[in-house]
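look at this fold:
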Amino acid sequence: MTERVMPEHFGGALWADQTMAHPIGLAALSVALIALLILPRRYQLFPLIMIAVALPGAQRIAIFSLDFTFVRILILATLAAIFLRGQLREIRWGLPDNLILAVTLWNLLASGMLSGGFEGVITSAGGAIDTFGAYLIGRACLRSFEDVRRLLLWFAALSLPMLAFFALEQVSGRNLFSIFGGVPEETLARNGRLRAQGPFLHPIMAGLCWATILPCLIALWQSRTGARMLIGAGIVSMPLIVLATASSTPVVALMCALAGVAFYSWRHYMRSLAIAMVGVLFVLHLVMEMPVWHLLSRIDITGGSTGWHRYNLIQQSINHFGEWWAFGTKATAHWGWGMQDITNEYVLAGVDGGVVQLLLFAMFLAVLFLRLGRAQRMTTSVAASRLLWGLAVMLFVHCVSFLAVSYFGQMVCIFYLSVGGIAAVSEVRSPLKGRVRSGRAVPLPAASSGL
C-alpha cells in the first residue's frame, strides 16, 4: 500500500498575499464593473454571478498584504451600487439578519482574541466581506420570487457552456481555465478517475455549486413558469457536471437534492419526519459500537473517498474541545494526520470562533428552515409553494454537505447570496396568493404583500 504524502501548503492559503491577475481576467472584471453601472436594477446580480462561476477563484489583486479577489471586488462594487440605489433601506431587518450579523461580529472579536492584535481582525474582515457582504446582496436584490427565478435562469444558461468545458476536461485531461492560474493544468485524478473542476478551486466545490442549485431549477420546471426549454437544459446539464467531478460529496448532494424534491408531497409532515430522523440517529448512537458520526467513514460513492477523515475530524474536535470552545484555536494539525484540513463547516465554525460562533451559525440555519416552513404554510400559490420547497431542499443539501466539506473560494459567495435570498423571499406578511394553470406560463407572485 502506497503511503500518502501531505503536499506542501496543504490546508493553507496557497495564493495569499500574491497578485494573480490574467489580462483576460482583468478585462472580464472591467466589463463586469461597467455592466454593473449601466445594467438596470433587475440585472445587477449578473456580473457577480458571471465572475463567480466563470473565472478561477484565485484571481486576485494583493495590496499591502490585503487580498482582493475578483469575487470580493464585485461584492464591494455591488454593495456600493445597491447602497446608492437605496436598496438597503428596503430590507426589513429580522432574526436571521441579526444572527448572521452576530456571527460576523463574533468572528472578528474571536480573531482578535486569538491573534492578540488587529492582524487577525484584518484577516477576518476579508472573510466578512465574502460572507456578510454576499448575504446583504442576496437580501437586497432577491426581493421576490421573480428575482429568484431570474437568477436561476442565469445559472441554467451558464451551466450549458460550463458543461462543455467540464466534458472537454474529462476527455482531454486538461483544464482550459489553467491559463488564468489558480487551477492545475492537468486534471486531478483519483483511482484512475479524472476529477474535473473547471474554474473552481476544487472538484468538490464545482460539483456542489451545481448540485445545490438543481432542486430549485426542478421546482421551476414543475411550476410551469415559462422558459421550459432553458430550464430543462439546465436540469440535464447540472447533474452531468456533478458526475464529471467524480467526487463523492457532490454526488451525495445530488442524491439528497433529488430525494428532497421527491418529498414535496410530504411537505406538511416534515417536522414529524425531522423529529423521527433525530430519534433514529439517537438510537443508532446508543446501539452502535462507534459513535453515529462514524457512518461518515462508510460513505464512498466514487471510490477513494476520505470518509474516515470526515469522521475522525469530528471525533478529534470533540476530544480537543477544551482547546477551541472559547474563541477557537490557531492550529489543528496536532490533532492527527491531515487534521489541518477542516473538511466540515460546523467544525470550522467552532475552530474559527468557538462554541458561540458554532451555535449562532446553527441557529441561523434553523431560523431559515423555520421561515421557509411558515411561508410554505401561508402560500396559496402552487408556483410559490414549489419554489419555496426547492429553496428548502437547496438549504438542506448545503447543511448535509457541511458534514463533509467547508466552503471556500466562489462557493462562499454563492452560498451566502443564496441564503440572503432565502431570508428575503421567506419574509411573509400576508398569505401568498396565486395559482398556476396547467400548460401556461404564470408569473410568480411577490414574496410579500409589500412587493
